[in-house]
Every structure is written in C-alpha cells, then in structure tokens.
Design a protein that fits this description.
The structure holds two protein chains of two kinds. By secondary structure, chain A is of the alpha/beta class. Chain A has 14 helices and eleven strands. Chain A has a five-stranded mixed beta sheet, with helices on both faces. In chain B, strands 6-5-4-7-8 form a five-stranded antiparallel beta sheet. Chain B is flat. The chains are: A alpha/beta, B mainly beta. The structure holds zinc ion (ZN).
Chain lengths: 394, 165
Amino acid sequence: MARNAVILAGGQCKWGVREAHLVDLFQEAAKACLDDVPTLKPKDIDGLIVATSYAGRCSFQVNTAPVIAERCGLKPTSICTRCDTLCAGGSTGIILAMGLVQAGAADIVMVAGGEKLYTPQRWEVFYSELASVDHDWDGVHGMGLPPPFFALTAQEHMMHYGSKKEDFAAVSVANYNYAATNPVAQMQKLLTMEEAMAAPIVVPPLTLYDCCPITDGAAACIITTDEIARKFTDRPLVYLRGTAQVCLNSVSANFPGAHLADWKHTRIAAEKAYKRAKVSASDIKVAQTHDCFTISEVIEVEELGFCKKGEGGAFCSSKQIEIGGKVPVNTDGGLLAVGHPFGATGIRQGVEIMKQLQGRARHQVKDADIGLTHNLSGANAEHTILIYGREPVK
Amino acid sequence: MAVLGIPILEDLYPSTMDMWPLEAKEFNRNWTFYENLKQGRLTTTKCKDCGVVSYPPRVICPECYSENLEYIDLPKKGKVIIFSEEVKGVPLGFQSPLIHAVIDLGVDPARRLLTRIINCPAGALQRGDEVQLAVFDVPALPIDKGKLGTIMSERVFFAFEPVKK
Ligand SMILES: [Zn+2]
C-alpha cells in the first residue's frame, strides 16, 4: 500500500545578485528550510535531491549532491543525487522525492535547488545561456537568453487572440506588488501601471518589467509521509495529490502547438495532473505559474483552464490573478519579482503553496485547500505541474 | 596569447567555451549536415525504411529506430511568419540588430523553423517577406591530434537573409 507524501517544511535564502558561493546559498536555504519546522534536525533527513543546472558551467562543479550534503550537514542513507531540468529542476526534485517516499524507498527527503549565475565576468552568464535551449540548433542562433523567444510568443498571442500590452503590464504590476513586502525577493518595489507601460524596451513587445531577472539563490523543502510529518508538526498537512511532466520537443522547429501561443504540451500536462489529483481546474484556489515573462502567465492561465483559451489577457487585466480574484497567481511575487535561480524556482513555488494551504501566507488566499505549481523549461520545451491539497487523494 | 586570469591556457583552446557546434567528423556523426552547408545546401535526414523526415538530422530514425538514413535537401527559400528585433543588449558573439524569425520553408518538418536573419538592417523586415539561406564561415575548430599537432577543421553555419526585391 503506497504511503501519502506531504511537503513538511520549506524556505529560501535571499535571492538576487548575491556576494556568495553556490554552496553558501545552499547552506542558507537548508537552514531556512529547517527553521520552518524547528523540531526537524539534519540527522532526521535520509535523502537529498539537489536541483541545479548551471553548477557545472558557472561553479566548475558537477556531481553536486555529495558537495551540498556535506556542506549542509546531511548524511543521506536512502538517496543522494542531483537532477537538471533547468527551470523545472526544483519541481522535478519534489516529484522524485514524492515517488521515493510513497514507495518506501526514502522517509524524509530534502529537495534543495539553487544557482549561482553571476560570475566575476558580466558577459559570461549571457554567453553560457546559449546552453539553456537546444544548443546546436537554437542556442547557436543567439537564442540562448529567452526574451526573443517570448517576444515571438507574445506577438503570436496578440495576433491570434488580440491580447494587449496593457494585459502584460497587469501581470507585472500584480506580481511586483505581491513581492513588495517579501523580504527574500530580488525585486521589492511597488509598481504602477504607468511605470510598467513606460518601461524601456527589451525585445518588442516585451519591456523591462515583462522579463524576470537573472538571479542567484537557493531554496529547500522537505518531502515525507503524513505519518512521519505528524511527529514534527501540528500544522495542517499539505499533500502531493498529482503531478505530470510533459516533453514533446526540444528544438523549437518541432514546437507542438499550431503557433508559439498555443501550448499543447501544457494542456496535456494539466489534464494528466488534474486526473491524477482527482480535481479539475475549477478546484484550484491558488497557483504559482511560471511567469518567466508576463506573456507566459497570460498563456498559462488559459492552458491550465482558469479561463477560456485566448482570454488570458483579459483574465489578468481584470484582476482575476489578484487576491479576491478567481485564481490568485504567483502570490509571493513569482519569477518576475522574487527572481528565478532555475533549480530553486519549483521549490519556492511549492513552499508558497504549502503556506497558502496552511493559512500562513503573506498574501493569504481565503480557504485555500487545493493549489497548483507549474513550470516550463528551455525554449518552452517541457511543462511540469504539481497539485497540492489539504487532503490526500482517495 | 594568455587567457586573462588563467595563464596556463596560453595558446590552448577551451572547447567548453566555444559557442559554435563541434561539427568535425571526429566529434559529430551528423558532420554531413555541415559538409552539405559548405556546398550551400540545407539538408536533413530521411529514414529509408519508414520515410519519416526529421529535423534536426539524426543517426537513428526517431520513429522506427532504423539506422538506414539518407540526407535530403530542404528548400533554401522561405517566408517570414513572425520576427523579433533585438537592438540593445545583444549577447557576446552576435551583432546588433539581432533578428530572429520563425520562417516557413513550405515542407514538413520545416514549416516553423527558427533562424537568425542576417544582412538586414533594423526596421526593414516585414511579415511575409521572402528570405533565403545564407551560409557563413565561423572560426575553425582546433583539434588536438597528439604527435601530429593541432589541425584546424573548417566550420560554417547558417542563417537566412532577405531576398533582394
Ligand atoms: Zn524510420
């Protein structure tokens, strides 16, 4: 009989341009994670899954799991490994940890993700980003940094569905304002619609606040069973109800949708995750979606089924993504304002959903009982969805 | 010439920092793609067993796992579906304006090929414009052949450029 997996604890270090080494960031995140449930000690943890993509490139370190285990005072006996799915690395780690604890192959797993992207040379991170997409076929065209790809995506959404620059700006305003009081966010400022609309151009139609920053940072969470979690906490338990990870292509020429604003792979992932979680889109009370760009969040609320296809722009600009709206999205500030250290992002999202479902989030959604996290990775090559709930799937 | 901060790399080639593909036969079983490019041909692989055409080229057919593949030519002209122009903040290795386009070569699987558009000033390109294959030289790949020394393997890459009206 499979066991029920829960997310027990979690935290992140300060994200931004950090004067620190990669292993420093992981130590800060591990401490923030265990500080969240002080009864839990490093010796209780029997598994570690590390999510990092750029350690090999930016910190000259592969096989990162033993390094992180040692620096964080962990001595895993069930699993000690690393995963790399770039922007979805943290979520992938949570899915793997869930499977291990459900199967009884591990009991208390720390999933820790992080990146140190700012190197002593400013050109290097941009240059290395050519590896973030299919290098020899897309990266080599100068498509490494994603703004051009999502500028094309935004153009096709405007062309096919009539979304407007104001809709994109509404997403950045909402997410920046969620993060304004978040002490660990990279961007902590209130943003007005006027500022968002007047921001400098990056790649038309995308302007400054449409794009998430480059971020150093780490986050960590604990995945265990409900029975074990009960020994450490009196808080409501937050169960992993269903997950999906869909990859239909890598090279952009093989993009599965009819055009770049048609995310067939997101729909397949959502359908599968909802089915496994035995919920539907209308059950989702709060979501953390992959707002690497404002246009991404606009399309995600459509493909996840929060509104009709093509109406994501209106959904966002009519405040349905804000507290009191139909589905509050990226309630801690999202990638746009908290930042995006690739391997850490999925963990940050899971921790925010945990807090929402436990009723202790900074911007609390009333009666939140089902929450969702979503990532896309690469040149929109893979989609990862996790659904959390206050009750296990029966 | 020494590499700043890493004097031991004097006159050495750090291939992990090379932005262009390792195209040479010694490092790539799809080297024929690049040899064809040198002849001005944009090609990819077709399965001789099941007929599936794949892009990018493969060493196995992704449909039936046959190794019985042949190179076929893709059209050298296409139409711009959409494009983006990056004028400021262009990354190292590329010149402003950095123009990206999704182009339609009119055949599967190249109906939405992402490419760079070169030889085109900012503000000149329009949706629907006809573009053609443009092959250019990139720095040769230094390959360490042991006692034989280092050989330089010539390399090219491709983009598309506007067809003169
Ligand atoms: Zn075949």
